[in-house]
Design goal:
The protein is of the alpha/beta class and 166 residues long. The chain has a domain of 115 residues: Rossmann fold (3-Layer(aba) Sandwich), CATH 3.40.50. It is built from 6 helices and 5 strands. This is Response regulatory domain-containing protein.
C-alpha cells in the first residue's frame, strides 16, 4: 500500500464518537481512523498527516462542536486543495436547513446522516464513499479491495480504466 488514506471522525460527545468508531471498525486495518472532538483539533491532525504525505479519504463530522462548527470545517476543507477531494459526511441531529444547504453547496457534502443512525447505513455509506475516493483518485484499488466494494472495483478493471489486477 503506497500511502495511508485516513478516515476522520469529528464528534464532541465521547459516547457518540466511540459508537461511530466502533461501527466503522471493520475499515480500520486498511484505512486508519483519526478522532477529534473539535474542528480545530481535526484541522491540526489533518495538517500533520497531510504534511507527512497521507490523504484524508473520508470525514464523518458532527455539526455542533465547541468553537468552529462542523459545516464551517467542511467548507474550509473544500477550499483547501489537499482536502477538496475528501468525501464529506455530516452526522448530526441538529443542523438546520440553512446549514445543511450550505454544507451541500459550499462543502460538496456527499451525504447527510441523521442521529441516531443505523450501523448498516453508516457502514454502507463509508464503503461507498471510500470506494469512490480510491477509484476517483487513481489509487490502485486492489490494495483496498478487502474492505471496499469489490464488485465496483472489478467492473472498473473490466472497463480497463487504467486499473489492473496485477
Amino acid at each position: 500500500m503506497a500511502k495511508k488514506i485516513y478516515i476522520f471522525v469529528v464528534e464532541d460527545e465521547p459516547e457518540v464518537l466511540d459508537a461511530i468508531v466502533r461501527d466503522i471498525s471493520g475499515f480500520e486495518d486498511v484505512f486508519p481512523v483519526e478522532m477529534a472532538d473539535t474542528a480545530e483539533e481535526a484541522r491540526d491532525l489533518m495538517t500533520e498527516l497531510l504534511d507527512a504525505g497521507s490523504e484524508i479519504g473520508l470525514i464523518l463530522c458532527d455539526h455542533v462542536l465547541p468553537g468552529q462548527n462542523g459545516v464551517e470545517l467542511l467548507v474550509d476543507m473544500q477550499k483547501d486543495p489537499r482536502t477538496r477531494k475528501t468525501r464529506k459526511v455530516l452526522i448530526t441531529g441538529q443542523a438546520g436547513l440553512d446549514e445543511t444547504v450550505r454544507a451541500v453547496n459550499e462543502a460538496d457534502l456527499e451525504h447527510y446522516i441523521a442521529k441516531p443512525w443505523k450501523k448498516e447505513e453508516l457502514v454502507s455509506i463509508t464503503k461507498k464513499l471510500l470506494t469512490d475516493y480510491v477509484l476517483d483518485n487513481g489509487e490502485n484499488p486492489m490494495a483496498y479491495m478487502q474492505v471496499l466494494d469489490s464488485e465496483r472495483i472489478a467492473d472498473e478493471i473490466r472497463k480497463g480504466k487504467g486499473i489492473t489486477d496485477s
